[in-house]
Amino acid sequence: MKRIIFYFVIVFATATMTNIACNKDIEGRTDNIPALAPSNIDLNAGTWKPVLLTSPSEFAVAAPGAINTPDYIAQINEIKSWQANLTNDEKRIVQYWSAGAVLRWNEILRELVAKHNLPPYQNDDGTYPVPSASNPLAYPQFPFANPPYAARAYAYVAAAQYDALIAAWYYKTLYNRPAPYKVDSTLKVLIPKSDLPAYPSEDAVLAGVAAEMMKLLFPGDQEFIQQKAEEQKRARIIAGANVRSDIEAGEALGKAVAQKFVARARGDRAGAAVGNATLWKQLEDGCTEKGEIPWKSLETPKRPPMLPLFGKVKPFLFDSLTVITLRPGPPPSTSSEEMKAEVEAVYYQTSHPTREKMRIIDFWADGAGTYTPAGHWMSIAAEDFIRKNFSEVRWARNMALLAMAEMDAAIVCWDAKFAYFNPRPCQMNPNIKTLTGVPNFPSYISGHSTFSGAAATILGYIIPERAAAYDAMAEEAAKSRFYAGIHYEKSDCAVGLVVGKSVGDYAVKRAKSDGAE
Predict the structure, then answer these.
(1) Within a 13 Å sphere around the CA of 33, how many CA atoms are in the beta-carbon half?
(2) How many beta carbons lie within 10 A of that of residue 325, not counting itself?
(3) For this UniProt entry, which segments traverse the membrane (predicted)?
(4) Helices H, strands E: what count in the chain?
(5) To pair with 14 at 20 to 30 A between CA atoms, which of 72, 170, 223, 336?
(6) Residue (of 389, 319, 468, 365) closest to 40 by Cα position
(7) pLDDT over 80 at 49, yes or no
(8) Crossing angle, helix 495-513 and helix 392-420, to 10 degrees?
(9) CB distance 399 to 431 below 8 Å
(10) Confidence of residue 10 (pLDDT cuts 50, 70, 90)
(11) Which residues have CB under 8 Å from 383's CB, separation 6+?
(12) How far apart are CA 135 and CA 461, in angstroms?
């Protein structure tokens, strides 16, 4: 019987796993949270530093019509007509989206990552098909949302949302058109009232930018994504929060900002990250020529390494030369006593599992059908951000900092993995039986550790009273890979944490200079 080992867990693409990936419950424990009522509306956010926009006013938004015009009055009446016959489903979508649109779009994105985080099955000839963006509905559907791809998706959506909201805040303060419930006191108000100007609608901005980015990243899910965007816009009108012209201006602005990020994504070198058979052979031969044992796929049939050129992708927080400077020194030689000791330590761990270690392994596994490690940290951050009662624009800023750190951590980690092409512990000692699946890429450095070090660093800066807790989580995430027999403790996990923290420091540096503090 052929042995199929997926990159994080041994899993078969059964109906059960598909249900887990597509279940709405995957959105987490935030379904019934109160409506967002920020303690600070961050009215000056239109002056904050964007990621790609040259300025908040790069894309023009026309001045709105006056609130005493027949057209505006007609838009007020549209709200009243909706509110006259609200259904339970309409009340539900108002409640859902009023929790915060940055939160909800991040949940939707995580759901799509989980849905697509299933490696393709092999062809009859023993080769493996590759998802194709030019034919996204063919098997395997594009994308395969592996950890680097997922981290990139989170970063592009979050950074685009942030820039779009900075622009929205700029025009809000410029035009200062009030919310419709401040114009007509007879309107029902189904969301918390705010002093934030209504034009352009921040929710429509987010619907426009998120939908455009996610359609690029998940082209097979465009109908679902557009349905969510339409639902969000409708919820704002039903709630009495925006009139139609607020929505239209916001959506147009969001779409315009998205195109700038789409252009960047098309040229960031991610499309070439898969490599080819010649490159894969060169990596193996180069390692052998150095006198080292090269990494090899332990799957049957042998699967090509995952995204060997992802280390060449253009990062957000620093330039590509910095990726090289962040590359750690080499791991212990595969023939050294140090490596022998590391292998023995892994063998001992996997031979002596405990209930607590298995809990830690399972909690941080983040394998097929999940959000991936970067998304796991997004989920952790979301629950903590809810408690902080941030404004939408601050939510976007903080999520962008985290997501950009995770993408750049993936780039730096993958650069190291394929620079050294170091074998996994179970390759060095076949008696090691991992307690979860074997990832299909080199061992040094640990991806979980790098992701977690970066996340803990920027989150600890954003919420300093939680810094020690985040560091403890990062340590546990790193340990989980050692306990599972997937990584060496000292070289892979410890070094990965250090490298991740260095990436996180760049996110902190940006946070200190973006004008939001």
Answers:
(1) 23
(2) 10
(3) none
(4) 19, 0
(5) 223
(6) 389
(7) yes
(8) 140
(9) no
(10) very low
(11) 28, 29, 30
(12) 42
User: According to CATH, where is 1.10.606.20 located in the chain?
Assistant: 42-266, 276-513
Taking only the tens place, the pLDDT of each residue in 14-27 is 333 333 333 333 33
121: left (phi over 0), alpha (psi -120 to 50) or beta: beta
Tell me the pLDDT tens digit for each residue of 107-151: 999 999 999 999 998 898 888 898 988 899 999 999 999 999 999
**Burial environment of residue 224 by CB neighbours within 10 A (0 to 12, 13 to 18, 19 or more):** middle
Under a CB-based contact definition with an 8 Å cutoff, are residues 302 and 284 in contact? no
**In whole angstroms, what is the distance from residue 91 CA to residue 195 CA?**
23
Q: Which two tokens stand for residue 325?
A: 């400077």
Which pLDDT does position 25 carry in this prediction?
A: 36
The two three-digit tokens of residue 341, written as one number = 């000791």
Global pTM reads 0.94
Which tokens go with 150?
């997922």
Structure tokens at 82: 């909706």
CATH class of 276-513: mainly alpha
Task: For residue 506, give Cα distances in angstroms to 317, 401, 413.
Answer: 6, 9, 15
Give CATH for domain 42-266: 1.10.606.20
Q: Do you know the residue count of the chain?
A: 517
